[in-house]
Amino acid sequence: MIKRKLCREYLEEIERLERSIVELEEQINELKMQLRLKVDEANSLAIENTSLKHKLDLMKKREKYLLELLKKFGVPFVLVDEEEFEDVDVSE
After folding, report:
1. Rounded-to-integer distance, Cα 59 and Cα 71, Å
2. What per-residue confidence (pLDDT) applies to 79?
3. pTM of the model as a whole
4. CB under 8 Å, gap of 24 or more: what pairs does 62-70 form?
């Protein structure tokens, strides 16, 4: 009788552990999928970042070229640092 009860308890515990393992495997698969999505997102952002850096570099080169061209032709111009005026309160 005691042997049967112990065996039944062990079998129930084994079944509970097996269910827990299945749940943990499902959670692991879900986390793997989330990780893949995050890696894809990070890769996409890295590509976009590289593209934007390239565009910024091209814009800086164009700006430098245009400034040199204006100087070469003797065209008067004024450079304004926009960041200097961003914090200025014009309502005063």
Report:
1. 18
2. 75
3. 0.60
4. none
